[in-house]
Amino acid sequence: MSERSDGRKFDELREIEARANLIKRANGSGYFRFGSTSAISAVYGPVEMHPRHLSDPRRAFIKFRYNMAPFSTKDRNRPGPSRRSIEISKVIKEALSAVIEREEFPRAGIEIYAEVLEADASTRCAALNASSIALAHAGIPMRDLVASCSVGKVNGQIVLDIAGEEDTEGEVDIPIGYVPSENKIHLLQMDGIMTKEEFKKALELGIKGCKIVYQKQVEALKEIFKTFESEEVNE
Amino acid sequence: MEEDKSESKLLTEDRKIVVPGEILAKGIDYLPGHGTYKMNSEIRSKVLGLVKIKNHLINVVPLSGGYMPQERDGVIGEVVDVQPYAWLVNINSPYLGYLPLAEGVEEFVDLAKSDLTEFFDVGDVIYAKIKKVTKRKDVLLTMKDKMCRKLHGGNIIKITPAKVPRLIGKGGSMVETIKQKTGCKIIIGQNGFVWISGENISAAAKAVLMVEKESHTTGLTERIEKMLDKELKGDNNE
To answer: CB–CB of A141 and B137 under 8 A?
Structure first.
């Protein structure tokens, strides 16, 4: 009774791997993996804004693209933007825009590209986490990192980090984007039906998960500089 | 307020690597400097960088990021367009540098007789000073300053602008070391473009890139010297 389809506890995240500095040609890059859901993200900018008419004289314009690789799903995913990916791009862009100090770069544009490499539920969370790492690595001033994970209801039980079958067979799926320093939620979506009490419980559990994710993001960013130090010792 | 005062606390240390959102200090005894912000009496970092504490002022020096034009900076740029009365210069930032005719050349230019490309053409590399940056980030350049000139020949390498101060070193010590060891002419733009000309360009470029990569470590000057000695000896043997 106390176990999930993959043997995790109800309040347990999947294995997390977070890395930064993978793409040399980008200003910043990040990678984030929850079990077998992984996303890579690259940040270019701030750069001159194109198309010109979209540039804002007061703040930077954020371009965000969420895309699923054709090979990321069990059946081949048709390449190119879809209704779903456009919507996800919009919500992630808004979550990140709220933490970036956009006023420091008037008229400029910041381009963020997130690619889902493996999809096994919670892909928007992985994309958001990878993009947060990439933005910080690109040296873009931001008030905090956005940490994200999902919660849901599967077989009447509130569970953390929806994965695999839980996504298709579960009753509710809620991705959460959380900013620890402000204690604010910058992304929250829900499909399914829950009672008010269940929702409160789910949100509490989700924030707990986001805090663990946040720690991993911070470690990934600090790791960039540690790698070098250990190399030096070896020499 | 009373409570804040008693709780003032430094939660970080000098030269520590911090990430955006990381809490640096609490209370009113500390002041937020560059790369930080204050919220609910807590000072937090805004960028990925190194903490620098000066008395009660906390700064975070970024370890990455693009170049933001600042007045009085000397920059190296490439002319990307020639307009009727001005040049547009790529200065490695989201904003193009604007060099008007009056700031570009000293003498009187009769536009009926001459063409601006006689002075600077597209593709030319110049060292210029930033005269003014407006609030909407219009960058006005000038050539009316010492050092400002067209750069002939040589190679340009691009480094992270945040690491330019480290490359220059205390009072120019780092770049002076590289110049002396390699015998190259080196000009560093605050915008992260480094112009190198001379015999041992590859050794000098290697040293510059090494400084960029290892900028956050201590004892770097000695390691650069060692590396250059090794590198130059190898060249002589061949």
So the answer is: no
ipTM of the prediction = 0.89
Which CATH number fits the domain that encloses residue A142? 3.30.230.70
Over residues A43-86, the pLDDT tens digits come to 998 999 999 999 999 999 999 999 999 999 999 999 999 999 99
Closest B-chain CA to A182: B39
- Please choose, from the candidates A149, A112, A91, the residue with its C-alpha nearest in 3D space to the C-alpha of residue A30: A112
Distance, CA of B102 to CA of B81 (rounded, Å): 16
For domain B74-151, give the CATH number. Answer: 2.40.50.140
Tell me what pLDDT residue A232 has.
44
Q: Are A45 and A109 in contact (CB under 8 A)?
A: yes
Residues of B with CB under 8 A from a CB of A: 17, 19-23, 35, 37, 39, 44, 46-49, 62-66, 68, 94-96, 135-137, 160, 162, 213-214, 216-217
CA B21 from chain center: how many Å?
25
- Give the pLDDT score at A4: 86
Q: Which long-range contacts (CB under 8 A, 24 or more apart) does B231-235 make?
A: B231/B203, B231/B206, B232/B181, B232/B182, B232/B200, B232/B203, B235/B200, B235/B203
pLDDT at A95 over 60: yes
pLDDT digits (tens, 9 = 90+) for B155-170: 999 998 988 998 999 8
Which residues from chain A sit within 8 angstroms of residue B216, using beta carbons? 225
The CATH homologous superfamily for domain B155-237 is K Homology domain, type 1 (3.30.1370.10)
CB B159 within 8 A of CB B192: yes
Give residue limits of the domains in chain B: 2-62, 74-151, 155-237
In chain B, whose CA is at the least distance from the CA of A50?
Answer: B94
Chain B positions touching A28 (Cβ under 8 A) are: 64
Contact (CB<8Å) B35/A104:
no
Chain A residues lying within 8 Å of B49, measured CB to CB: 139
What integer best gives the mean pLDDT of chain B? 91
* Average pLDDT over chain A, rounded to an integer: 93
pLDDT of A41 reads: 98
Confidence band for A227, pLDDT divided at 50, 70 and 90? low
Residue A84 DSSP SS3: helix
Distance of alpha carbon B137 from alpha carbon B114, whole angstroms = 31
Handedness of CA B230, B233, B237, B238 (dihedral sign): positive
Phi and psi torsions of B234, nearest 5°: -55, -45
Residues from chain B that touch A180, judged by Cβ atoms under 8 A, are 21
Judging contacts by C-beta atoms under 8 Å, the chain A residues touching residue B44 are 143-144, 181
Structure tokens at A133: 């790492």
| pTM of the predicted structure, to 2 decimals | 0.91
